[in-house]
Amino acid sequence: MEIILIVLVFVFLVAGLGGGIALGYWYRKQVALRTQDSAEAKAEHIITEAKSKQQEYLLAAKDKAIKIMEEAKRDETERRQELIQSQRRLEKRENMFDQKLLDLENKQQRLQDKAKEIEQIKIEIHNIKTEQLKQLEQVAGMDKAAALQLLEQRVEEQSKDALFSRLKKLQDQGSEEIERQAKDLLTVIIQRCSTNHTAETTTTVVDLPNDEMKGRIIGKEGRNIKRIEELTGVEVLIDDTPQAIVLSGFSPIRRHLAKRALDALIADGRIHPARIEEAVERAKKDLALDIKKAGEEALYEVGVTGFEPKLVAILGRLKYRTSYGQNVLRHSIEVAFLSAMLAEHLGADVAIAKKGGLLHDIGKAVDQEVQGTHPEIGRDILKKFGMSDAIIAPVLNHHDDYPPTLEAIIVKVADAISGSRTGARKDSYENYIQRLEELEEVAASFAGIEKVYAIQAGREVRIFVRPEQLDDYAAAQLAKNIAIKIEQELKYPGEIRVNVIRETRVIEYAR
Predict the structure, then answer these.
(1) CA count, 13 A, side-chain hemisphere, 347
(2) Which tens digit of pLDDT belongs to each residue from 33-91?
(3) Rounded distance, CA 321 to CA 331, Å?
(4) Which fold has domain 199-295?
(5) CATH 3.30.300.20: which residues of the chain?
(6) Dist. CA 504–CA 491, nearest whole Å
(7) Which superfamily is assigned to 433-501 in CATH?
(8) Which of 17, 144, 417, 498 suits 390 as a labelling partner, its CA being 20 to 30 A distant?
(9) pTM above 0.70, yes or no
(10) 402 or 357, which is more confident?
(11) Distance of alpha carbon 483 from its chain centroid, rounded?
């Protein structure tokens, strides 16, 4: 019974659950149908409004298209009218051009006719002139050429004296005016350029801290002073002058080399042959730097650039070269300034004149080592360093009578001005230097000689020979031969002492 009740209750529950599900499904379906009807209505309304707006837009577009077409037709009509008017104007201009062309052709034809008439008239005039000349020749009894010659002779005879007098007067006036202008120009140039002419001659003074240093310079048995003289080629004069010694020699380079070496030795305090050799080698390097610096300072002073370093060093060597007692480097700088000022006044190339003036004596830097005149040596040096012919011309021709260029003439004049200044040069000094150089050349002409130095103002020539090539007997014979050759070839006052030195040195190091 209970089971039946339970079954019945379960059946009623299942039936109620199924009825609730069915009832819920039906309600949901009704709600969905109402919602669908509402969405369709809205969509229909939206479509209806869209069609209405589409119709309005189509009507507006048609109206606008009609207006555009009407405006295009009006523009086309206006452009056609303008084209027609332009065509009419062009036709009118063509007609006018044709008319003018016809008028021009008519004028050209008339001009040609007139030219023919004029040519015919010229021929007639020429014939008439020829006929008249023939009649005149018949009346005068001579032809045209003879008449002209006779007329020229008579005019020449009548005016010869007057012409000669006038020409002579003009020549005199021109010469006087040119000479006056040249004097004025040279006076102005000389006044604008003022340089120092003083230079060392043959001696250089070395200051000492005390007189005791003299003994140390002389050394044991004179070995130090002998080594200094042998390595530098100057004579060291030690006398009673307090705190000073004198270096004597005609070569400024040798004297400056010896002075630098002695200054270094005095400052160091250790003076012996080995230290002397080291000091001389260092002095040679310092002197080479000083020579290069002198060349650079000369270029800077003159205002010239673009030279090769080796050429600058060669130019710096002129600091230790003199010509007739005048320092060649200062002389070259002065000539460069004078040449530049003259070129500026005369309208020449200032740069070429300045460089030519600075380098005109460059050959003197090595003329004691290379054969040839200093202009030829200078030309070879400048060609080696690629200088232009315009710069080489003043260097090569500054001693010629007729230099080839205006700049070369200017450099020659500037060279003469610089050398002719009062006190600039000393002829006797140059002759003295030349005599010493000749003395060294004669002594060095023999075989087996290592070094030759003329010292004591040319009263002694000191010769160092190679000991491996000459023995003692040969050295004695060499001294005699040199003395004989000096007597035969040179002119000198008094006597010259020939001092031949043969020295063997053996060096070893203890390690």
Answers:
(1) 0
(2) 676 666 667 777 888 888 888 888 888 888 888 888 888 888 888 888 989 998 888 88
(3) 10
(4) Ribosomal Protein S8; Chain: A, domain 1 (3.30.1370)
(5) 433-501
(6) 34
(7) K homology (KH) domain (3.30.300.20)
(8) 417
(9) no
(10) 357
(11) 52
